[in-house]
Amino acid sequence: MGPRRHKLPIGIQTLRDIRDGGYYYVDKTPQVARLADSGKYYFLSRPRRFGKSLLIDTIAEAFAGQRALFEGGQAAVALGVDPAVANRPRLFLAEHWDWGRRHPVIRLSFAGGRLEQRSDLERSTRRQLRDNAHRLGVALSDPDDVAGSFDELITRAAEAHGQQAVVLVDEYDKPILDNLEAPEVARAMREGLRNLYSVIKGRDADVRFAMLTGVSKFSKVSIFSGLNNLYDLTLDPAYGALCGYTEEDLDTVFAPEFEAAASEGQPLDRGEVRRWYNGYAWGPTAVYNPFDVLLLLRMREFRAHWFETGTPTFLVQWLKQRGFFTPRLEQLWASEALLSAFDVDGIEPEAMLWQTGYLTIGQVLRDADYTAYELRLPNHEVRTALNSALMAAWHPEGLRVAQPALLLRRMLASADAQALRAHFERLFASIPHDWYRANPIAQYEGYFASVCYSHLASLGVEIIAEDVSNEGQCDLTVKHAGTAWVFEFKVVDGDQGTGEALRQLQAKDYAAKHRGAPGVERVIEVGVEFSRSKRQIVGWDVRGA
Q1: Which helix (DSSP H) or strand (DSSP E) does residue 192 occupy?
Q2: How many secondary structure helices (H) and strands (E) does the chain include?
Q3: Minimum mean pLDDT range among 28-42, 217-231, 468-482
Q4: Residue 218 pLDDT more than 80?
């Protein structure tokens, strides 16, 4: 008889429901204790569905003195917990917290429905402040004054309860992000939120702890209005695993689920689980997307669970409008300033992709007072699903060309270079001339290589970027079923192949590193040339097939 199984907390964002409902819980309370001991004002950016709301709720329950939720066994029963649900692990915070202090907790959340104009934001905020005041037993003198009411709520809550207030804001940026396609609305939302959050500044006497969480990391100048004491946890290595599941969590907390899957004839290969869903890094420990892990354990099926719950239509269209060179997804560098350069009037693709979770941090290079971050796709799910979405936008028949993916994978596996050429020729021949004229994405230098890359990356094969700094050409290695294909994609002005792509490829000799490498049985070099005037492949030179 293995360890007892629990319910999977899919979509459960409150600690009480998880603890009293018999769900699995990954204990993040050691980090909560450290946060409370070491500081006062915090900010945390993480992608959607990474557990931010549950973290906020856990912090709220701790400061409110709800010790019973953190206890298990007889200690929980002694605090009034129903014996039927008290058989649960004791959390770290149960004996590492000052339970003698109960703080009034003020909670704001913009995680709900979309707010489409400034008046909606004001109405939502007024309602939330009113609800907080009612729950804390205080009155607000002028409920129509949003910022004034927030300020008054902090003061009166601290006075009424004899303890400093705790201020927690979940999805602080969602009203802005929801309206990025309408910049004037987004700017209005930003101003409204700036007025609200500026209240927290200078409230040391009445605030014990404050935390704001969201997806994006808006510049302090644009939204926090001088709230310089807000410590940014986003890239603090000590809190890299504050949200998300670690390998150890899967080995321990969720071990009963993996054992059950194996015993029921549906084993989940841990290497595949890691390849699909691990790889997010905000510190030294890589973490899994928790939503993916929970859906995988329920369905026992590898698929793009997280991606499918929020296909980034805006992100894809936004990248398309800017002519983003999609092979750069495999090899991208950014400074810390660039990663933080996020505002309504100026969003860099690197910042957008990183903050929304479609890129993560690989290696970090430091030289004196300068830090550079390598950004990479985190895992198999994001690489294939994001490139499928990009392909659908980059090509008029993007969804249809994805249908023969199995055939294309077989061409790559069987080293059939001529069949592969015919496939890519059909791919570009299927684009009507009018589509080129009407779509800005087709006008820029990197269009040809972007389509080729995203098409290959959507197949789920291994992709290695060698050099993607020049949008007129691109070097990619594709590994699949023992064959390494080393491609050089090059745009030429004439309507005839020149052989220059293959010559450049051989001069760089990227193929050398793959010859004799583990798992590689053959190496094929392909120089592909695309005519800017004919809008078609005019050169396909192969060596090694």
Answers
A1: helix 183-197
A2: 24, 15
A3: 217-231
A4: no
Question: For 137, left (φ over 0), alpha (ψ -120 to 50), or beta?
Answer: left
Q: Which helix (H) or strand (E) holds 258?
A: helix 255-263
Q: Tell how strand 370-376 and strand 360-367 pair up.
A: antiparallel
CA distance 13 to 58: 9
Angle between helix axes 313-321 and 380-394 (nearest 10 degrees) is 60
Residue 399, pLDDT score: 63
- Total length of the chain: 545
Can you say whether the dihedral through the CA atoms of 144, 148, 151, 152 is positive or negative?
A: negative
Most confident of 194-203, 259-268, 304-313: 259-268
Q: What angle do CA 226, 232, 238 make, to 5 degrees?
A: 160
Rounded to 5°, the CA angle 262-268-271 comes to: 135
3-state secondary structure at position 472 = coil
Please say if the pLDDT value at position 227 is more than 90: no
pTM of the model: 0.94
Q: Hey, CA dihedral for 233, 238, 242, 246, is it positive or negative?
A: positive
Q: How confident is the model at residue 220 (pLDDT cuts 50, 70, 90)?
A: low
Strands 165-170 and 207-214: parallel
Residue 298: pLDDT over 80: yes
Q: How many other CB atoms are found less than 10 A from the CB of residue 337?
A: 12
Which amino acid appears at position 156 of this protein? R
Q: Which of 274, 296, 278, 295 is nearest to 287 (CA)?
A: 278
Choose among 121, 136, 226, 135: nearest CA to 174.
121
For residue 532, what pLDDT band results from cuts at 50, 70 and 90? confident
Whose tokens are 């707010």? That residue is: 115
d(CA 391, CA 405): 12
Q: For 235-255, what is each residue's pLDDT tens digit?
A: 999 999 999 999 999 999 999
User: How many CA atoms lie less than 13 Å away from 450 in the CB half-sphere?
Assistant: 28
